[in-house]
Amino acid sequence: MGNFPILTAVTFLPLAGALLIMLVQAATGSNGQDEETRGRQSLLAGLIFSAATFLASLVMLVSFEVDAPGYQLVEQVSWFAGIQYKLGIDGMSLLLILLTTLLTPISLIASFGSVKTRLTEYTIAFLVLETFMIGVFCAMDLVLFYVFFEAGLIPMFIIIGVWGGAERIYASFKFFLYTLLGSLFMLAAIVFMYMQAGTSDIMVLETYAFAPEVQTWLWLAFFASFAVKLPMWPVHTWLPDAHVQAPTAGSVMLAAILLKMGGYGFLRFSLPMFPDASEFFQPMMFALSVIAIVYASLVAFRQTDMKKLIAYSSVAHMGFVTLGIFSFTEVGVQGAIFQMISHGLISGALFLIVGMVYDRVHTREIAAYGGLVNKMPIYAAIFMLFTMANVGLPGTSGFVGEILTMTGAFQASTWAAAGAALGVIFSAVYMLTLYRRTVFGPVTNPALENITDVGKKDLITITPLIIGTILLGITPNLVFDITRESSLRALQMITGG
Amino acid sequence: MLDFQAMISAIGPELLLALAGLAGVLAGAFMGDRFNGLSFKLGAATLLLAALVVIMNWEGGEAFGGLVTTTPFVNFAKCISFVAGAVTLLMAEGFLKRHETIRYEYPLLVIFASLGMGIILSASNLMTLYMGIETLSLSSYVLASFHRDSIRSSEAGLKYFVLGALASGILLYGISLVYGFTGSVDYGDIASSERTIGLVFGMVLMISGMAFKVSAAPMHVWTPDVYEGAPSPVVAFFATAPKMASMVVFANLLFTAFTGVFEDWQMIIAIIATLSMLIGAFGALIQSNLKRLLGYSSIANMGYALVAVAAGAEYGAAALLVFMTSYVIASIGLFGGVLSMRREGGMVESIDELAGLVRRRTGLALALTILVISVSGFPLAVGFIGKLVVFQAGWNAGLLPLLIVLVLSSVLAFGYYLRIILVMWVKEPVERFQPVGSTVALSVYAAAAACLVLFVFAAPFLDWATRASAGFIQ
Question: Do B391 and A81 count as a contact with CB atoms less than 8 A apart?
Fold first, then answer.
């Protein structure tokens, strides 16, 4: 590819699409067509752009050299005051970008028919969000990272606030302010690091040795941001609200991509830049992870709202991610990255699955369902697959992530691993209960009498996720080969230094 | 023998404004109402020309035996103030025409106010400073009550006048104490005189007076009322040009005349900054009138700017210029938004009137969203860079408690800025605004575009500010 700035292209292609849609819609005016038709055209255009972004990210995948150490496809332009516009990827960011570019078109497809109002703005918000999410994963400068990290809040805020459920305003504010408060601490830390080290270049900072007492504070500041984003117990309470109120596609992006920024942040910043502090806080992180796994699982079991249940299940599964990361073992970190990818596919699919019945029945109450298998056999089969994947059935990607993070944690702390194993059992309890109550049993709700099985649109959205979940479950090495260098680099300051 | 060339380079812009203002008075006297329409364009052209003269004499100079000294630092502020004055003047025309108060006195008052700004920025002597402040203030009082038939406008003007006169009195009393204890009114002499309790006392009184002019807490009480009551184009002017000028004058005064008592004023400025940030943020949270909200928001923003002042000349000077410039740009756009809110019966000012704006005027809503993002200091627009450099300055100066307040107040600020975005994007649309002319719309779009462009190309902007403040770095 020569010197073609592929990362910039992938990052800003969706934004360019958003601008184009905006301009075309503004230029054509309303010329007779009703708003819904125009909205559908925008959505289609947005879909084309996000699909093109996906293809561009495949080019990125092809030009990526798996065995080469360090960051690749680096682009660099000076921005201001020593801060650079610098992009680069390693295996971990590559996969997360691919996950983003895959799930955005899927979310947009899922929105056909289910979102009816203001589709043009909706499409624009999603495309802008995609740009910022990709930017987060390939920014190689702290300030640039912060800009992308924060900027993503605005489109998500609008997506929840405009197209969300009844309590959407409350949920969007909570989401925004929670995340923002955490991030501002991170900003303070970023400014400090920039002053101290004289650069905000991530590649340089990874090998810069901050004094141990300084590390503690910096680590805590980054922790404030990532713990909210991930989310970890006890700062997870924004997530159920945001998920329940967000439209289906918004939930998918939130669960599949935005939560991963937290895990990504721990691996990219906390471990390599503050190794001493990371080791110091290991017991705390283990404790919080295990609490998150057990507590969130128990809370999930009590939920009456399908989306809320899956939201709490996300909190529990993110607990495995932090558990793996802070085991400081290669297998644990590899497992954590794998778990992030896998959870992106599975939780995305689960939210789509909830969205499918929501579009038909317009309720997410578990009690309103029951006996779906009689009316929607294919739906029941797909739901079954992802229920099992979320529980961690061998053969699905969910299994690999959980077993590896627990293996890693076991090497560091037997108790933590034992506690996390409890979570695996609990996950079976709440997921199977959910499945039983919605899919099995007699049809009691008259609204379900005429419900139709999954349609073409639903199959198109879910098929890539089915393939991904099973493929990664059977041949996890696809991921491990790509992320090995990233995991080793995240750990090098701790184990090797 | 007067060195004419040197004098022009020091007071050229002020000379131009003074002559143009007087010529305008004459023209008005002879032409009467026929001059009304023309005067706005001529006024704006004069201000832009003055900005150009400033740029041409960038390095500055000295005149009248040291009564006036210009440096790149103050020239930067002059330039921005004059341009802001010109833009807000052009935005005012349509509004005043619709209210049938389009009179040539308006641009003349803006020009005289700008003359006052030029004088205070150039001042290197307390007497010059006071003269300039009075020129600026007296013009402002009249502007605030420009709609003399409206009770609200008259009330705003009266409030502003009474409190402003009190502040001027305090300032003057401070000046007299400083003069009494140092024996001089020259900035340089004051700086080199020894620290006495009387000097510090006078300085504190001067700070109080200046705090009123920049509407920093606890001298902020007039701001929300005047913002709400005065005609919107006047507020657009108040919120931009004089804010920039007064804040830079405030900093210049402390950085040059009171550099010897840095420790004394740093603490005071830190307290004022803290109060402003908190009062501004908490006050804005509960407002439903957009102009009032912007009033409180300006108090909070002056608090952020004062953090840069408290950081001292070496760290804070450039940061102050960057922050104030980004604030002024966003404010111009936001007040353009206020001026766009016209309905059948007249102007509306409640935030709820923006409901669903994105459906009715997508472009305007988008531009306002960018401006709100910028003024809140969120990444994506130049306001972020402004806050970042202020933060940096505070950090370098070791003002940690101040920075914590800054961060917390910013979070609070997002609460009310977000509400504006939310109302525009989420609420069910209300009736469409009546058109208000292309100048206002153009200013809003230009301000929004400037916010984005200066964010992406921040380096030249920062360089410019840094070079302008180079004189403060030893």
Answer: no
Is the pLDDT higher at A17 or at A81? A17
Q: Quick one: pLDDT band at residue A2, thresholds 50, 70, 90?
A: low
CB B150, CB B59: distance < 8 Å: no
pLDDT score at A37: 80
Alpha-carbon distance of A425 to B470, in angstroms, equals: 66
Structure confidence at residue B204 as a pLDDT band (50, 70, 90): very high
CA distance linking residue B248 with residue A312, whole number of Å = 52
Of B358, B385, B422, the CB nearest to A121: B358
pLDDT score recorded for residue B251: 93
Give the whole-angstrom CA distance, residue A104 versus residue A109: 9
| B273, B217 contact by CB (below 8 A) | no
Q: Distance between CA A252 and CA A465 in Å, rounded?
A: 12
Q: Structure tokens of B105?
A: 């006195």
User: What's the pLDDT score for residue A30?
Assistant: 57
**Cβ of residue A220 closer than 8 Å to a chain B Cβ:** no
> Is residue B241 within 8 Å of B121, Cβ to Cβ?
no
Q: Considering only residues 36 to 95 of chain A, which have any Cβ-Cβ distance to chain B shorter than 8 Å? A: 78-81
The answer to whether the CB atoms of A80 and B358 lie below 8 A apart is no
A148: closest CA of chain B, how far (Å): 8
Mean pLDDT to the nearest integer, B269-291: 91
The secondary structure of residue A366, as a DSSP letter, is G
The secondary structure element, H or E, covering residue B169 is helix B151-182
| H or E segment to which residue A40 belongs | helix A35-63
With CB atoms and an 8 Å threshold, state whether A191 touches B418: no
Chain B residues within an 8 Å CB radius of A161: 422, 425-426
Short-list A355, A435, A351, A352, CA closest to A391: A435
Distance of alpha carbon A153 from its chain centroid, rounded?
Answer: 14
Q: Shortest CB distance from B373 goes to which of A81, A143, A154?
A: A154
What pLDDT is stored for residue A1 in this prediction?
A: 44
- Cα within 13 Å of Cα(B203), Cβ side: 30
Q: Which of A326, A11, A357, A124 is nearest to B365 (CA)?
A: A124
What pLDDT does A26 receive? 75
**What is the token pair recorded at A363?**
């309720």
- Residue B209: which H helix or E strand, with range? helix B197-213
Residue B324 has pLDDT above 90, yes or no: yes
Q: Is the pLDDT of residue B303 over 90?
A: yes
Do the strands B342-343 and B346-347 form a parallel or antiparallel pair, or are they unpaired? antiparallel
- Looking at residue A241, its pLDDT comes to 87
A143 contact residues in B (CB cutoff 8 A): 388
* Contact between B301 and B372 (Cβ < 8 Å): no
Question: Of A143, A177, A192, which has the smallest distance from its Cβ to B395's Cβ?
Answer: A192
> What confidence category does residue A32 fall into, taking pLDDT thresholds of 50, 70 and 90?
low
Q: Map residue B474 onto helix, strand or coil.
A: coil
Dist CA B397 CA B393 (whole Å)? 6
Beta bridge partners of A242: none
Rounded distance, CA B453 to CA B126, Å? 39
The pLDDT tens digits for A146-185 are: 989 988 888 888 888 888 878 888 888 888 888 888 888 8
The residue written with tokens 């992308």 in the block is A148
pLDDT at residue A494 above 80? no
For an interface test with B, the pick among A22, A80, A172, A175 (most B C-beta atoms closer than 10 Å) comes out as: A80
Q: What is the pLDDT of residue B305?
A: 94
Q: How far apart are CA B456 and CA B385, in angstroms?
A: 10
Over residues B88-113, the mean pLDDT reads 89
Task: Establish whether the linkage from the previous residue to A234 is cis, with ω within 30° of 0.
Answer: yes
- ipTM comes to 0.78
Give me chain A's average pLDDT, please. 86
Helix, strand or coil for residue A87?
Answer: strand
